[in-house]
Design a protein that fits this description.
The chain is α/β, with parallel strands linked by helices and 136 residues long. Helix content is 22%, strand content 29%. The protein has a single domain, classed as 3-Layer(aba) Sandwich (Rossmann fold). The strands form two sheets. It has a six-stranded mixed beta sheet with strand order 4-3-2-5-6-7, sandwiched between helices. A two-stranded parallel sheet has the order 1-8. Strand 2, helix 2 and strand 3 form a beta-alpha-beta unit. The radius of gyration is 14 Å and the shape is globular.
Length: 136
């Protein structure tokens, strides 16, 4: 069994400070895992943030549906053309793809802390992560 990795807030912030991202109009955080990283990026880039509520996994991180599901109404103002979709982890990329499909008329890039995305903060981490904001 692979041990979980503990990442500190200082490690995350240090990587974020060095990260170069494209010019965007809006940070779109996938709730609930993407709320904290989207908030951090919104602050770093001084860009507005909005949330999109997608559900795929249950509280034990097991798939709940065959595909990720949009669980609330979702609308973006037309002024937001360049979007950065943010989630904490993307294993298969299916959640990010659902959101990308909803935004097919916009320029979209993806960001995760680990996993599969256009920008990945910890690409070397392949095991489970214990995030500093997830108290157990």
């Amino acid at each position: 069994m692979i041990a979980s990795v503990h990442l500190t807030m200082l490690e995350i912030v240090s990587r974020l400070q060095k990260l170069e991202l494209p010019d965007i109009d809006l940070i779109l955080g996938i709730a609930s895992g993407g709320i904290v990283p989207a908030s951090m990026l919104s602050y770093k880039l001084q860009k507005p943030m909005q949330l999109i509520h997608i559900n795929f996994r249950d509280a034990d991180n097991k798939p709940k549906f065959q595909q990720p599901q949009l669980i609330t109404n979702f609308h973006l103002e037309p002024v937001y053309r360049r979007i950065l979709i943010v989630d904490d982890v993307s294993v298969t990329g299916s959640t990010l793809q659902v959101v990308k499909n909803l935004l097919s008329d916009r320029q979209v890039r993806t960001f995760t802390l680990k996993g599969k995305a256009d920008y990945v903060l910890f690409p070397e981490v392949t095991s489970c992560v214990i995030w500093p904001w997830k108290a157990k």
